[in-house]
Amino acid sequence: MILKKLGLGTVQFGLKYGVSNPTEQKTPANEVSKILEIAAENQIQVLDTAHDYGESESVLGTTLPQNHPFKIITKISKLSGGFKKIPQTFLESLTRLKQPFVEGLLVHHAKDLIGEKSKQVYEALLLLKEKKLVKKIGVSVYEASEIESILDQYPIDLIQVPLNIFDQRLLKSGHLDEFKKRDIEVHVRSMFLQGLLLVEVESLPACFNSRKANFKKFHMFLAEQGISPLQACLQFVLQLPQVDIALCGVNDSKQLLEICKVAENPKLRPENFLELAIDDPMVLNPSNWKFEV
Q: Which of 55, 72, 87, 195 is the 20 to 30 Å CA partner of 11?
């Protein structure tokens, strides 16, 4: 049953992505087919993509069989061209995906649902829902302040938020509970913190040298409990009752097989991980990571 809470992030299908991606390239199309087969066999239902994920939508469109079992969530780009382009860009996504409709459409940049044109943005999404091209509409957020502004104005169906062992801010603030009170479906991303939580301390990028104490504490905890970083990340998020879907991205089919195997056998409860939470935006927000070139 717990595997049904897993969703598959597809950014790797269209872009090189993640600290722990050793190949430094996007996932080849033949490997995408294997990944999707394994996902279907393991009752994974949600595929998460976006207009901004390179060729991800197109890869899914050419790889998915006609009668696939997946619910597809996609996202619209930052609205630099204005809200009037939403129908056009969404229909372009449907064309790339080769789908008659999608399960969900999210505003990728939350500020587009907060600014002075936010009402028109929401109405454009609502119209797509009324036309039955989208079942659920919502937003992808990064900060609690964005959440408050949006919930005060718009009755969204779906929200995507960051959550992992280090980043427990929305759990501790009560926002996850608030989502459930409002009957908002919760999709969690960054479960592995873009792969950072799966990397050995010695292999961390240099920009985290001053923050190694947090990672050493995490790995000491894992050693004491006799679990792997992958087990810990999955066990924490998947067992939270407020989480409907926990998105994981993979570079190849072997990684997905391992995730499915590990996810089925939880050894610790979410409360066992509470002391590992940190509140350091230099670690929690990938936009603050500064890699040497």
A: 87
* Mean pLDDT computed over every residue of the chain: 92
Nearest to 260 by CA among 10, 17, 20, 5: 5
Is domain 2-288 given the CATH code 3.10.620.30 in the classification?
Answer: no
Q: Which of 227, 272, 230 is nearest to 249 (CA)?
A: 230
| Gyration radius (Cα) of the chain, Å | 19
- Whole-model pTM: value is 0.94
What are the start-end ranges of the H helices in 56-174?
A: 56-63, 86-97, 118-130, 144-153, 169-172
Query: How far is it, in rounded angstroms, from Cα 101 to Cα 105?
Result: 10
- Residue 75: strand pairing partners: 106
pLDDT in tens, 25-60: 689 999 999 999 999 999 999 999 999 899 999 999
